[in-house]
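Exam revision sheet. Question 4 asks you to relate a sequence to its structure. Input first:
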Amino acid sequence: MSPAGSPLPAYPPTPGPDDGPFWEAAAQDRLVLPRCRACGMFIWYPRVFCPDCHRSDVQWTEASGNGAVYSFTVSYRGPGPWAEQAPYVIAYVELDEGPRVLTNIVGVDPEAVRVGDRVTAVFEPAGSTRVLRFTPSG
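Answer key, structure tokens:
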């Protein structure tokens, strides 16, 4: 999971007390997600309780970083520095582990993206850490 090198802006995140392990792994180009020990559900957005069974017994688990485009739109405008990079893709990616992640698809012509396309996680610089985006697989 190496960076795609897209020109999209990336604002440094403000890690909270519940998502620190996610950002620590992202800084190392790794995708980790909380997984409920009780029901097995992978959780997105990272938090310390399961939104399905409401238990707080979660374990941070390495994820594959693979998924498929679930839904997307191509933006031809944007605020501030995003306007300079238009058009760009905003998408929901359904990870192979189950959760859907709101993200960008990078490293591809925005007009070529299709629902069902296989994608792989990449991490791009954002201050002292990295942000999760996706690029087409192989």
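Marking note for examiners. The radius of gyration is 15 Å.
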